[in-house]
Amino acid sequence: MTRFPLHTHLNGIFVLAATPMRPDLSLDLDGLTANIDHYLAQGVDGVIVGGTYGEFPSLRHEERVDLYQAAGTAVAGRVPFVCCTASSSTLEAIDLGHEAAAAGADGVMVTPPYVSEVRPADVLHHFREVASASDVPLLVYNSQSIGVELTPEQIVELAGIDGVVGLKQGVLDPCSQVATVAHAGRHIQIMCGSDGAILSALAHGMSGVTSTLSNFMADRFVALHRSILSGDWSTGREMFFAWQPLRDFVARNGQPAATKAAMDLMGLVGGPVRPPFRSLDRADIQTLREVLRELRLEAAEAPVSS
Question: Which secondary structure element, helix H or strand E, spans residue 272, and what is its range?
Fold first, then answer.
């Protein structure tokens, strides 16, 4: 039984939790617990674990289950909790969904299958099978990074599946965003899938944002969202545009590595990234430290290691 009904609770700032790792690349689940406590203290509205920028493609099945269990215990029903159970295998997505529900997830986030030559009918079949077998509601993840992009028409069709309650819209084209909200927004909640599109997404009527950068600046995202909700778009725009140097740095260096490095600098638990990603080198970490200082984010003064 879910604690939060996701069809009414997919709104606000949902942190896309990074997956902390130790120097030997093993999972740091104690670090995850500490990070989640920090996110919640900063006022985030929900937590998603095991997503693309949570490095799920490099995690073994058993590690993904361990991640769900640790996160479920840490969240402890305080905010909506979603596990990414994406897999190109429908059967594995179903199995992971059962594990997520057992760990206390209020819902699961599922991408289309990303095998070669997947057809629209295959995508529809995948979601129908996963939804019919799931113990919790589904958040569809329309990700540009997997090579299968859902059209607004496909999203409307998926919105009609029993158990599908929301969409993480990772397609950033404004026309596609508008069409998606216009056609599917009456049936499911639609969240923006990118930190860099939060202003336009909220203007289009999306219910919130799934945010990677909120791993280390959650209070800033919460403040921006509250400014917009109160109608203070001027303050929201000022905050958002001030973060452009940080977004530029992340775009150059990759979200997982840059986010984890920033977390370490901020006194949180990030650690290295797993291959094929590469952790930032000494020079890039120093540049990141300077970017954070310019934004008046309190970076730790620990020495930068090579």
Answer: none
In whole angstroms, give the CA distance from residue 80 to residue 214. Answer: 16
User: What SS3 state is found at 8?
Assistant: helix
Q: Which structure tokens are listed for 257? A: 């590595």
Residues ≥6 apart with Cβ < 8 Å to 69: 99, 103
Highest average pLDDT, of 7-11, 19-23, 182-186, comes from 19-23
CATH 3.20.20.70 applies to domain 6-235:
yes
Residue 125: phi and psi, rounded to 5, are -65, -40
- The structural domains of the chain, with segments of one domain joined by +, span 6-235
Residue 2 has a pLDDT of 59
In sequence order, what are the residues at sequence separation of 6 or more whose Cβ sits closer than 8 angstroms to the Cβ of residue 210? Answer: 14, 15, 16, 48, 51, 168, 191, 192, 193
pLDDT at 298 over 60: yes
DSSP 8-state assignment for residue 21: B
Supply the pTM of this predicted model: 0.95
Alpha helices in 76-118 (DSSP H): 90-102
Q: How many beta carbons lie within 10 A of that of residue 168, not counting itself?
A: 28
What integer pLDDT is reported at residue 304 of this predicted model? 42
Question: Prior bond to 276 cis, omega within 30?
Answer: yes
- Measured in residues, the chain has a length of 306
Distance CA 269, CA 290 (A): 19
Answer yes or no: is pLDDT of 299 > 80.
Answer: no
Contact 53, 274 (CB under 8 A): no
The whole-number average pLDDT for the span 198-222 is 95
What average pLDDT does this structure show over 181-188? Answer: 93
Task: State the Cα–Cα distance between residues 139 and 154, nearest whole angstrom.
Answer: 14
> What residue type is assigned to position 298 of the chain?
E
Decide: residue 220, CB within 10 A, 0-12 exposed, 13-18 middle, 19+ buried.
Answer: buried
